[in-house]
5-formyltetrahydrofolate cyclo-ligase
Amino acid sequence: MKNQQRKCALAKRNALSITERKVFNQIISKKLIPYLENINAIYLPYGSEVDITAVMENSKQSFAIPKTYPNHRMRFFAYEPAMPLEKSRFGVWEPIAGKEITEFDVMVVPLVAFDEECHRLGHGQGFYDRYIKDFQGCVIGVGYECQKLEHIICEEHDQSLDMVISETSVYIKH
């Protein structure tokens, strides 16, 4: 069932035009800015994911980006505009090396689908679920409204988000 939800949400996201995504990315980025704090974990977009990289370029705050490892773990490294990146085995741009950041205030995560209760459906590898489980800060998901489902099927290991920001709404976990 999760795979069906994933497939449906990805099809909707991929159906958005490049122009729609650009407009929605700008709206989502503007909505995200007030929630950012001193040090923020953020991601580099893959495929048709929400692109919020403009937030990093136009901010005085610090950012860290993830690097994945074979044991389904992630570490975060300080983002520098000219830092060397490489594609991971999943096709995602990641830092080659850098200064590891182990503490941050806010984590912004990509998602495949979400619901109004701030449940998140990712690509199914569990990297973010494992990290979020022990994270003490605010976790914000960003996605397009077309990715919202009525109800995300959750399993014991799935971690919910504190909020989800789309181009039309901000959903806050109750």
About this structure: Helices lie at 2-15, 18-32, 53-57, 127-133. The radius of gyration is 15 Å.
